[in-house]
Amino acid sequence: MAIEVSNLSKHFGQQTAVNSISFQVGKGEILGFLGPNGAGKTTTMRMITGYLGADEGEIKVNDIPVSEGNHRIKKNIGYLPEHNPLYLDMYVVEYLEYVARIYGIRAPKKRIKEVLKLTGLTPEQHKVIRSLSKGYRQRVGLAQAILHDPDVLILDEPTSGLDPNQLVEIRRLILDLGKDKTILLSTHIMQEVQALCNRVIIISQGNIVADGNIEMLTRNLNHRHQVEVTFSRTVVDETLAQIKGYVTHERLGTHRYRIAGESVDINESVFDFATSKNLKILEMTTVRDSVENIFQQLTKKPQ
User: Does domain 221-299 have CATH number 3.30.70.980?
Assistant: First the structure.
């Protein structure tokens, strides 16, 4: 495994930021790490990179245990923090030369040239970082993260604040990098998961609440078989409960309802129900759970 996390916990005073979580990331996998603000994503990523010590549990990267200040680990990891820290008064190529010296990269000019081309920064290499757009600053952050050719990339909100064109460019770059590297990325953009990730972990209040691919998560959710139906007249709640396989429903309008059932046959059950009640169906649509719906259901705070 490229990353192994076992019973990992982190506390800040009385607050539990990460609560005994465990997961693994295989080599060559792109894993999306989702969760609301304060869920524990960034804290977990900082512990994996060794920038923050864990209170309990164990982390291994490429079978090497992580501990704060472990230089062997940091050589295996490329890290782009959420707030991309750059020396804004440096030129792009100057900054990458500086990073190359830190890592002791052999033949740095050759490697910098390769990375500039890979990240699309060649035309911008002699510009001051301060003058670059947000998208190009993210590219510089990614360039420093991959400069030493690490096996594992930890990317914290790599597409935050980008416009649609920049999003497409950075996504393409991450997919290219994912061909031969393991990538763990956090994001609040649900489409990002579908566009980039082989697998997703959803974390809420320091706990992992889901782990799998989008199709599996959707399949395992309760009430996943849903239809939205508009009848010719209002139907009372107790009557809707007579639908075969009925689980629950939500009123969307005067005559419109979202009905959840136990099986994919819920459409037929609603049709049979309408026929038996002399109801006309004006419109009926199968509802497929989006990543947003999955996220909202799994991270909903208890009332």
Answer: yes
